[in-house]
Amino acid sequence: MGSSLPDLEAILLVGGQGTRLRPLTLGTPKPLLPTAGVPFLAHQLARARAFGVRRIVFATSYKAAMFEPAFGDGAAFGLSLEYMTEETPLGTGGAIRNAAQALSAGPDDPVLILNGDILSGHDIGEQIRMHRAKQAAVTLHLTEVDDPSRFGCVPTDEAGRVTAFLEKTPNPVTNRINAGCYVFKRSVIDSIPRDEVVSVERETFPGLIESGELVLGFADRTYWLDVGTPAAFVRGSRDLVLGRLHSPVVPGPTGEYLLLEGARVEPEAKVLGGTAVGARAVVEAGASVIGSVLSDDCVIEAGAVVTDSVVGQGARVCAGTVVRDAVIGDGAIVGPGNELQNGVRIWPGIELPERALRYSSDV
User: Which stretches of the chain score pLDDT less than 50?
Assistant: First the structure.
């Protein structure tokens, strides 16, 4: 597959603050959150490598200094990595333009743009081949969703040419949405103004369409997920552990759970549904954990039930507590007999006393 795409270069957009994922992102940028046992971006780097990408420029802004220690020069992934930082956030277009200074691609070469919060199973090689065959200015990955009203939608004509970028609307004209993976002709990136805040979705793409440039849509229905919310983040990790989306970097066989080094699950505990159990984490006898992300060094005590949730590093869920659709921050302690649900978020280091929070009326 890679042979027809020699030395392809990519830009990875990882500048966002991950506000919707707080408190998980207070200390860690979203792209570095452990997802099925490795930093989220590890899955993207491995996939890009599999499609012939050899060099990736990180476009960083929020907590920029944390990326290079995590991935280094990329040798472990068979990649060459560069890091470009925006002093003030420049939007998607500005970030791409800023990072492009580190590219070596020629004016007509394709440059792949990846978003640091998307998990996608689509065929990147096919997207690039379509872009090259039709000599497009930009080729966008479009994904088909059941409810497009929550997204802006992207209609195309019968030749695949994108005709408009429509904002969110109650009655969308198509169920195809911008899936956040682009192939740009290098010269088109160079036409984006430098050191200015520019949105590719609201300015660059509509501008190209208006001036008659060829903007193509590559549409498919493969696995696609924006991991921006806690529920979606948990689902992404779960799907990777279960093998619903293949990733070569999941550190163990796929199945009901993934145990990292030193993790301990007592024989009488129940751990199911694609749960990732972090390094040195402990799940005690009689506890039940389903479809959740347990971070390193956390403890789930006897009789606790954790479902569809994230438990932060070193956090403790005490006996008999029920945690459903919740986020427990790093180092927090949830005392016995609490009920946490409905998207509740416990900030790092908080200690909840026994029965401090309940949803049911029983004692």
Answer: 1-4
Residue 153 DSSP class: B
Q: How many CB atoms lie within 10 A of CB 253?
A: 8
| C-beta atoms surrounding 360 within 10 Å | 8
pLDDT given at position 6: 57
**Where are any strands of DSSP class E within 175-262?**
176-185, 215-220, 224-226, 257-259
Q: Which of 256, 316, 244, 238 is nearest to 284 (CA)?
A: 316
Please name which of 56, 73, 183 lies closest in space to residue 128, comparing C-alpha atoms.
Answer: 183
Pairwise CA distance, residues 53 & 56, whole Å = 7
The contacts of residue 64 (CB under 8 Å, 6+ apart) are 15, 83, 85
pLDDT, tens digit (0-9, with 9 covering 90-100), for 309-344: 999 999 999 999 999 999 999 999 999 999 999 999
Kindly report the length of the chain. 363
Q: Give the whole-angstrom CA distance, residue 10 versus residue 56.
A: 5
Which residues fall within 8 angstroms of residue 319, CB to CB, at 6 or more apart? 301, 302, 303, 304, 336
DSSP 158: T
Res 323: pLDDT: 97
Whole-prediction pTM: 0.91
Distance separating alpha carbons of residues 303 and 269, to the nearest angstrom: 9
For 255: left if phi > 0, alpha if psi spans -120 to 50, otherwise beta; the answer is left
pLDDT of residue 363: 60
- DSSP assignment, residue 101? G
Among the listed residues 71, 72, 97, 78, the one whose alpha carbon sits nearest the alpha carbon of residue 13: 97
Q: In the structure, how many helices (H) and strands (E) does the chain have?
A: 7, 28
